[in-house]
């Protein structure tokens, strides 16, 4: 669902604009979960964690989805999806600086290899490296940093909050924080077409509401490190859909860069190691 979200975003962003797409998507996702909770008679307990939801909304929605949408307008769906997989690298840096958790040699090696993949990806891109391109790259950095920070913050401050409540609160505040940006980045098509509206509702219902519920449940059952490994499927799905449906091209060098990033992130996450005592560097 996260991989397919890049296809739906490619339909909604040209008409809604990147800012409105984030804000409206967040409100729809939050509202859908409230409706589902009431329909299934699920009791919602927010544990007075609204200030934490505000932080998560700013990081996980404002920075992550806002940066990602902005990057898509400059870099396209495929390249943005590949760059988003650097999240574990930023998670390691945040844990290192914020929580003073010294990384292992393997993690440090993964960090260096991962960012080397980014250098390959950007340095040999067939796209023209101009101001617009660099702004798009900056948007992807903001997106990855926001997701990583949100995960680390949630690990410390909201482990007692349920997945429904955490997702509802996070998207509600995320929508509120990004709504003023609509003034600066107005809708490109008023009113939007039904196709764009359908794409926005689809990405909100799948990649936001349902995917986050499943993801939080996965974190609870198998742990954050293994759960985050699902991120490696995101660019695979996005690149396939981008090539087939959006007619985007991906070069051999870009595939090499993506592969190097994957290797680096796998080392940072400790995937493939036999020991189960590897300290998590992410929580979301």
Structure description:
With 284 residues, this protein is an all-alpha fold. The chain has one domain (2-269). The protein has 13 helices and no strands. It has helices at residues 2-16, 18-39, 50-75, 77-84, 87-98, 105-123, 131-157, 163-178, 181-184, 194-222, 224-228, 233-244, 252-269. Helix 2 crosses helix 10 (194-222) and helix 3 (50-75) crosses helix 4. The chain is globular and about 50 Å long. Mean pLDDT is 86; it is low at 275-284.
Summarize the structure in short.
With 284 residues, the chain is an all-alpha fold.
Radius of gyration: 18 Å
Query: How much strand?
Result: under 5%
Spans of at least 5 consecutive residues whose pLDDT stays below 50 are 275-284
Structure class: mainly alpha
Q: Strand-and-helix sequence, N→C?
A: HHHHHHHHHHHHH
How many domains is the backbone divided into? 1
Distance between the termini: 16 Å
- The chain-level mean pLDDT equals 86
List keywords for this structure.
284 residues; mainly alpha; 75% helix; 0% strand; disordered C terminus
Topology of this protein?
Blueprint: H1 2-16, H2 18-39, H3 50-75, H4 77-84, H5 87-98, H6 105-123, H7 131-157, H8 163-178, H9 181-184, H10 194-222, H11 224-228, H12 233-244, H13 252-269
């Amino acid at each position: 669902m996260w991989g397919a979200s890049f296809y739906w975003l490619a339909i909604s962003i040209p008409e809604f604009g990147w800012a409105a797409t984030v804000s409206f998507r967040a409100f729809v996702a939050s509202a859908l979960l409230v409706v589902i909770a009431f329909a299934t008679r699920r009791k919602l307990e927010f544990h007075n964690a609204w200030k934490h939801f505000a932080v998560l909304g700013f990081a996980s929605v404002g920075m992550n989805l806002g940066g990602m949408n902005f990057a898509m307008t400059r870099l396209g769906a495929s390249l943005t999806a590949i760059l988003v997989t650097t999240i574990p690298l930023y998670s390691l840096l945040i844990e290192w600086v914020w929580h003073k958790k010294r990384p292992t040699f393997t993690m440090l090696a993964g960090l260096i290899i991962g960012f080397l993949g980014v250098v390959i990806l950007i340095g040999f891109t067939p796209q023209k490296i101009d101001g617009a391109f660099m702004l798009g790259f900056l948007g992807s950095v903001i997106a990855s940093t926001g997701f990583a920070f949100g995960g680390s913050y949630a690990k410390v401050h909201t482990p007692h909050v349920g997945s429904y409540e955490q997702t509802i609160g996070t998207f509600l505040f995320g929508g509120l924080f990004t709504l003023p940006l609509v003034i600066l980045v107005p809708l490109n098509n008023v009113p939007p077409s039904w196709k764009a509206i359908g794409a926005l509702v689809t990405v909100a219902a799948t990649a936001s509401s349902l995917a986050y519920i499943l993801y939080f449940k996965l974190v609870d059952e198998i742990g954050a490190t293994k759960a985050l490994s699902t991120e490696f499927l995101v660019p695979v799905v996005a690149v396939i859909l981008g090539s087939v449906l959006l007619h985007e091209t991906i070069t051999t060098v870009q595939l090499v860069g993506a592969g190097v990033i994957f290797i680096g992130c796998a080392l940072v996450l400790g995937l493939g190691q036999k020991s189960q005592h590897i300290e998590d560097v992410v929580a979301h």
